Amino acid sequence: MAVEHAVRLMLLNGPQAMLQAKQLVNDIGSQPLSHESLELTIKRLVETRHGSEGREGVNAFIEKRTPNWLE
């Protein structure tokens, strides 16, 4: 049940954000925590948040509506 709930929550996220998150896990998931891995994580988070999908997510939240994710 917890897995199903987690999957349902993930499916609400923007497809590009999920793609970036999976790519980040593939890129640094097996590395020890380091200054470089933190910098890469921050860089990718900022890029994702400032992209069109990130702006749509914030606008949808502010306007209290479901985001219109464009794939």
Short description:
The chain is mainly alpha-helical and 71 residues long. The chain is built from 4 helices and no strands.
Assembly state (oligomeric): single chain
- Span between N and C termini? 28 Å
Q: Please give the number of β-strands.
A: 0
The topology string of helices and strands comes to HHHH
- Tell me the helix content: over 70%
Could you describe the largest sheet, including whether it forms a barrel? none
Please tally the helical runs, counting DSSP H or I stretches of 4 or more residues: 4
Walk me through this protein's architecture.
By secondary structure, the protein is mainly α. Helices cover 72% and strands 0% of the residues. The longest helix has 16 residues, at 35-50. The relative contact order is 0.14.
Which labels suit this protein?
mainly alpha; 71 residues
Q: Layout of helices and strands, plus pairs?
A:
Blueprint: H1 2-11, H2 15-28, H3 35-50, H4 52-62
